[in-house]
Structure formats: structure tokens, C-alpha cells
Amino acid sequence: MMIDDDIILKAEKVSMLFPGTKALNNVDYKVYRGAVNVLIGENGAGKSTLMKIIAGVQQPTEGHLFLEGQPIHMASTRVAAGLGIGMVHQELNLSENLTVAENLFLGREVQKGLTPINNAEQRKVTMEAMARLKQNIDPDEVVHNLKVGQKQLVEIAKALIGDIKILILDEPTSALSKKEVQILFDVIRDLTSQGITILYISHRLEELMEIGTHITILRDGNFQSEAKVEDIDVPWIVREMLGSDPVSDFLPPNRQFGKNVMEAKNITYVDKSERTLVDDASFELKAGEIVGIYGLMGAGRTEMFECILGKTTYQGTILIDEVPIHSKMKTAQRIKLGVGLVPEDRKQSGIFPVSSVSNNLSVASLWKRLKFRVIADKDECEAVKKTIADLSIKVSSPTVEIQALSGGNQQKVVIGRSLLTEPKVLLLDEPTRGIDIGAKSDVFEMMVKLSEMGIGILFSTSDLKEIMAISDRILVMSNGKITANVERSKTNEEELVFASAQGF
Amino acid sequence: MQTNTTTMKKASGINASHVGLVLLKMRTFIALFAIAGFFAFTVDGFLAPASLIIMIKHISINALLALGITFVIITAGIDLSIGAILGFCGMVAGYLISQGIVLPMFGIAIFPSVWLIVPLVLVVGGLIGAANGFIITRFNVAPFICTLGTMYIIRGAALLVSGGETFPGLQGNPELGNTGFDLIGSGSLFGVPFTIWLMFIVAGIIAYIARKLPFGRHVYAIGDNERAAELSGIKVNNVKIWVYTIAGLCAALAGIVVTSQLVASHPSTGNAFEMNAIAAVVLGGTSLAGGRGTISGTLIGAFVIGILADGLVMMGVSEFWQMVIKGIVIIVAVVIDQMQSKMQYKAAISSQANNE
């Protein structure tokens, strides 16, 4: 093995198999010393898996890692930390009710035997770490009281304790404001000047151009390309990321739309911590039209859907079928007016796991099946059977518990539940999340069929290919704002990527 | 497609694990027969109609409470205050019969008739239940804590009604026109006491609600996945308030029955009854995690606990051992329940795998 001075860490022919999928396929990866190494790719390209392997969270099925030219085997994150590799995960992993210092030393408290924890020492080290980040955060402050950006920095401080050579940042900016991002970038520059190597994952291409020095692109679990940031531009990244495969098109030509079934005017939603999650968004949806909302995580798509369904208090006007509805109107009434939602997180807010497929399908539309205020069994049974057939849900019997079904079939049941309420507007929040490719095209075909029945469909995704495959019109959301509202035929992927970084 | 599923069902009906699953599903029923059979052999006259009726009469009190909180438990909640509501409602009934409604400004007391007292007491129980539901939903208090609090409050209130004294002799006074309260506990129809009729009627009503009304489905949905229920347009808070109201109503009914059987009301009646009721619900296969459970299961659970208790008494087993045995039965039941849901899940997965 030749020792290359520039390369601190190297992965050779790394593969990672999960039941059913190959997350990484023979990937070679180089990490350059003292640089900001950016790793990008679409959702499911294998970025997180590769980072987890480097941080010792997961062990690769095949392949080897070399640190400073020496082969290493990391059985756990502890081993990785011992070798000087630390990772800051995408979600914050702090204990809100503990102080900054306590969080930094969680699980590795300065303490021996039965003696009390050496708080003075912990505080001192915390102060040093904060000084290194040029931050003025009190070690005794309770984490709960910090701003999101400060919490992110505490996470970084936590990773910096000990002798860290490589720091992995997984989408560190997804929850930060523009100002906080700049502070983070200053910190990153400081750290690199101190000789620390940064591994940086993000979806925001503009940011990568600003902070990155080397860029590596993964596509569908394969190594795609590698370049110096100074040699490339954003269109190149988009091309490399998406490849030149033709986008499959699910929409037949010459689609006809009716009148507006939904209109949103100046919707603004500010959450409890006074962050503006939806910022003055206006758009409309016609009968029979499929509108896709593209945006990154945290762009405000889910929150927008919650506004439409009346789950949150918002300002602005929503019109259903050209009739304005009161902003305080409850979810149940909105559903009766014709709004259906298929939520993003199927497990958490979609399915009723221990209930039967039949009950899962009918529960939202029982008010339609009443005869003298009593559920008409026959009516219900027929509706359930019809939906199972229409959506080709594969189930041995409607009485099977839904948790026994595959993800794709569960998703179809959740969509079927909304359909039984006979909606005019169907909201699908990331409808293809966590389902396999075959089921995906099933879901798309179903969407086209429904739109042809005159339902207006609004769906969200963070997958560019999906949005190009199935939308009549595309909205791009970024930082709560709608930054583009274009017909699909008049746009391309690059434009959408640009728009998705414009809201700041 | 349709014939396909039925043939598949037939085919898998023969295999052993399927039979095992059916047996597991029927286990409370089997346990009931096993226990009844055991006592029939070991205790003389156990199956005599007279002793059976007395036993079922005992069971009916616990059954009423258990039926009432089945919905609560299906929504993944709990109600610890039902024993106290039972005691308090008994005291209210006793007070109304023996003291009447005192109007000090006129220096008189009005003695309402039993026909008025019973609905009045039911309203009191229902309102206490509704208050539980309101506190739980409006202020987001954990059901365990809220009903623990109301349990103390209501038990205290029951003691305050009489200063800790018993209201004896609630037959009523013919001159005051408030007789007949004792008939609820002692009367019978076709040789079967009113109390037992009442238990089956209430079970029927609640089972009807569970199966036939949207409300029942909503109860299951909330226990299964509250967020999904909300997004499906279910008025989660309303349903929950009603669920606790039903628990309160049933506890009030049980309070009336107990008071009438004893022809006296004592403020500490019903102490720890909620535990027996919860045990019956759990024995009946309702999951404390919510979303799963049946009314018939609760009824059978109440029978298992009741027959076990009375049978052991008749056998002459000491009260101390009775407690130990009851505890073991509950734990074994829940362990088997866990086994069942695991097997059920596997069976569903495999039948689904055949299909996909």
C-alpha cells in the first residue's frame, strides 16, 4: 500500500448489503487531509450508509478501510472515536434537560469508582471546546434553552472532545437559519485550519460550492465521480447526480383540467419557537391536475399540508371548491368537505397497525356508511372489497392485520382510506417513501387514474426523478417559501435544484 | 380470487400451528371451563342453580365496572377512579333516600322517589367520568395520574357526605314515597336477579356500540394510532371524554347495585374494585397498549376472576392464598396474551406472504 500524503482515509471496494437491497456497491472513496470533503447524491444513493461505515456505526459487508494507509477494522463507534473519527448525525442527539457540559460528557463522565463526577474538569474542557469553536456558550446552560444553531454547535463540540482527526457532518444545516449556517461555516473553516478533516453531506448545492474543496458523487449505491470543487459548477453536479437515464413519464399527453378545486392564498405558519415554517405561500390546484411540491427536508412541505388539513393555526385563506374555509375549521370537517391526506410517516401517522385492513380502510369514511346512525355492514364490506380490487391491494383477506402487509401495500391502504372519503383534493406527503420500485410505479399509476377521475392531487417529494415523472405542474419550496411554480414541460432538473436553494 | 382465499383457509386449517392459534384465541373461554370444571369436581353443590346465581350476582358488580373501562383501556388509557365513583354514587343514593334534599331556607327536606334517584346518581357518575376525560384531553394529563387524583378526591368526597358514617336501612319510608330501592338488588325476573339481567344488558349495549356505531370504531382507532386517528378526521378528544363518561356511568350503576344489595351505603365501599375490573379486562384479552380487545372477552374475564374467587372460598382456601392464586392467574394470562399476538402476527405474515 502506497502512502499518499494527501489522503487521510480511503475506502476500497466497499459494499453494503441490506436484506433486499444493495446500499453500496464496490465503492472506492478517498478523503483528503485537512479539506472539506463533500459527499452528495440523491436520496438512497448510499451517502449515509458510507458515512456510517466510516464512523463505525455499521460494518461493511465487503471491502476495507485504510486510515493513513493502515487497514482498520471498526467494530463500533468507540473504536472509531479512538482512531480520531467523530460523527455529528443529522438529527440532534442531545439530552434537552441536561447542561451543555453534561451533554458533552454523557457516557464518558470524568469520574472514578464511587467518587462524585468532576464537574470542574468537565466544565473546563467544555470551555476549551467552545473556545475552539469561537462560541460563547455557558457550559452550565441547560441545552433546552439554546437555539437550534447553538445545539448543532454543541453536537460538534461533543464530537471534538478527544483527539479528533476526521469529523463527519451529516446534513448539519438542514435545521439552521442562514445566519447560523454562516457561523457554522466559519467554524468549519477554523477547524480545517487546525488540521481537522471534514466530511460533509448536504443536499444544498449552493452551500457545497461555498464550503467544499473536494466533491464525491454517489449514484444508486455506486461511486459516480470525484472532482475538485473549483473545477466544476452546479449543472455538472446535477448531471452527475441524476445521470442521463431518460426520466420515465407516467402522464399521458393532452391532459384536461377542470376548475380550481383548491386555492391557497398567502399561507403563513409560524411555529411555537417563532420559526416561519410556511412563508406567504400561494398556489392553486385544478380538478384532475397533479401538482408536485419539490423541496428538501425542512423546506416546509409537511407543514403546508398540515395547514391545508387544519392541523396547525395558520394565517391566510384556503378555498376548497372555490369556497373559502375558516382557518379554525377542524380536520374532521375539512375531510368531509373533500380534503384527504396521506401522511408522510406511514408508521407514525398513517396506519392503525393492529387493526384489520378492512377497518383501516373504512375508519375515515364511516359517516358515509350509516343507516339510521348505525354502520351498514354490507355497505362497508362492499366499499372495502371494491377499494381492495381497485387499488390492487394484495391481501389474503380484509381481516388481516395491516402490519402484516408490505410497505407498498400498506401505503395503498392508506391511500384507499382517503379515497373512500371521496375527496376533491388528495394530499400525498412523500407517497413513495420506504416502498420498493415496483410499488412506486403502482402508486404513480394510481395517482394518474385518480386524477383522471377529477381529483386534484398535490404531492410532495424530495426526489427529482419522481417529480419529473408524475407532475403536471411543479412547485418548489425552500425555507417555507414557494420559489418556483412551473409547468413540467417548461422546466428541467437544474432549474428545480436552483429554486430549491433560493428561499434564504 | 375469492375461491382462492377460501381454499387456502381450508388448507391451512389443517395445520397444527393454526389449531394452536385457535386454541390460544379461545383460551379465556377454555380457562373458564377448566376452572368451573375443577370446582364442579372438588366442591359439592358448586353447579347447583342457587349457588351459581349467587356467584354470578357477585360477578355482576365487577363485570359492570370492567365493561365500563374496557373502552378506556382500548384507547390506551386507564381509569383508577371507578372504585371511588362506585362508593361515592352509593353514598349519594343513600343520602337522597335517608336524608332527602334539604332546603334550609324553607326548613324542609324533599324526598325524591327512587325513579328520580337512580337517574340522578347515574348523571353524577357520568359527570365525574366526563370531568376525568376533560382534564385528560384538555390539559394533556396522563390518564393514570388524572384518575389517581380523582380517585382520592372522590373517595374523600364520599367520606365527607356522611362524615364517614354509614347510611343504613335504605328500604325507604312508605310515608315519604321513596320505597323500592332495595328491589334493584333483591328483585328477580324469571328467577334470575335483576342484577344479572343488568349485567347482560349493559354488556349487550356496549358490545353494540363497539361493533355497530362509528364511535366504537373510533375508540379502537384512537388506541391503535392516535395521530393517524386525528388525521383521519376522528374527533379524538370528544371520543375520549365520552369513553371516560361511559366508565363513570357504569361505575355509578355498579354503585347503585351494591348499595341496593346491602340496603346500606358505606363510604369505603368499592375500595380497590378498580384493580379487579382492570384484571378482568386484561384477562379478557384487551391490550393495555390499546387498539385490541373485545367486550365478550371482558365479560368472560370477569367470570374467570369471580368463579375463581368464590370457588376458592367454597373450597375453604385461605384468603391469603386466594390473592396469591389470583395474581398468578393474571400474570399467566398476560404472558399467554403476548404469545398469542406474536403467533397471530406470524400467521398473518405467512398467509400474506403466500398471497403476495
Features:
heterodimer, A: 504 residues, alpha/beta, Rossmann fold, 3 domains, 6-stranded mixed beta sheet, 22 strands, 32% helix, globular, B: 356 residues, mainly alpha, transmembrane (chain B), ABC_transp_permease (chain B), transmembrane helix (chain B), membrane (chain B)
Give a structural overview.
- The complex is a heterodimer of chains A (504) and B (356).
- Chain A is an alpha/beta fold.
- Chain A contains 17 helices and 22 strands.
- Chain A has helices at residues 47-54, 77-82, 100-104, 119-132, 148-160, 178-193, 205-211, 234-242, 301-308, 331-337, 346-350, 357-362, 377-390, 407-420, 437-452, 464-470, 493-499, and strands at residues 7-18, 21-32, 36-40, 62-67, 70-72, 85-88, 166-170, 197-201, 214-219, 222-228, 260-270, 276-286, 290-294, 315-320, 323-325, 339-342, 370-371, 374-375, 425-429, 456-461, 473-478, 481-487.
- Chain A has a 6-stranded mixed sheet, with helices on both faces. Chain A has a 6-stranded mixed sheet with strand order 16-19-20-13-21-22, with helices on both faces.
- Helix content of chain B is 74%, strand content 3%.
- In chain B, strand 1 (101-103) and strand 2 (108-110) form a beta hairpin.
- Chain B has a domain at 50-278 and 286-293.
- Chain B is mostly helical.
- Classes of the chains: A alpha/beta (504), B mainly alpha (356).
- Chain A: InterPro entries: AAA+_ATPase, ABC_carbohydrate_import_ATPase, ABC_transporter-like_ATP-bd, ABC_transporter-like_CS, P-loop_NTPase.
- Chain A: Pfam families: ABC_tran.
- Chain A: Residues 9-245, 262-504 form the ABC transporter domain.
- Chain A: This is Erythritol transport system ATP-binding protein.
